[in-house]
Amino acid sequence: MDQLLFEPWWRVWKSWAPAKCKLFIWLAIRNRCWTADRLARRGLPHPSHCPFCDQEEENIQHILTTCVLAREFWCQIFLVLGLQDRIPSPHEISFGDWWCKAIKKLQKDKKKGLNTVIILGAWILWKHRNACL
User: Fold this and answer.
1) What is the pTM of this model?
2) 58: exposed, middle or buried (C-beta count within 10 Å: 0-12, 13-18, 19+)?
3) Distance between CA 95 and CA 132 in Å, rounded?
4) Quick check: 122 and 12 in contact, CB under 8 A?
5) How far is the C-alpha of 60 from the C-alpha of 76, rounded, in Å?
6) So where are the chain's domains?
7) What confidence tens digit (pLDDT) does each residue in 55-64 have?
C-alpha cells in the first residue's frame, strides 16, 4: 500500500503547517488514525458509517479523499486556487496517491504552499469529523 511507501517525507516535514498538523498527516498516510476501521479491529465502540456521508464505512482514506463531503471541500479550495484539475475524483482511494498527483507538474516555487494547503485541509476535515462524533 502506498501509505507505507510515501517516500517524499519532505512534503510533510518541510511544509509551513503547524507540527500537530504534520504529525496528523503522517499518521493518516500510514492509516494510523483512530477511525472506525481501526477501532473495530480492536473491539472498541465505533461509528458504523462515515459521519459525513453515512454511505460508506469510515476509514481515514475515505474521510480525506473519497467521501462526497471531502471531495466538495477540496473542490472549493482548489477552485479558489485555480487548480480545478487536481480535485480528487470519486475513484481516488488513497490520500497519498492523490496528493502525489495533485503536486505533479506544479511549479517548484508553489509546491511547498500547496503541500501546506493539503495538510491544513486534511486537518480541518479531521477536526470536523471529530466534532461530528
Assistant:
1) 0.91
2) buried
3) 21
4) no
5) 20
6) 10-34+61-132
7) 999 999 999 9
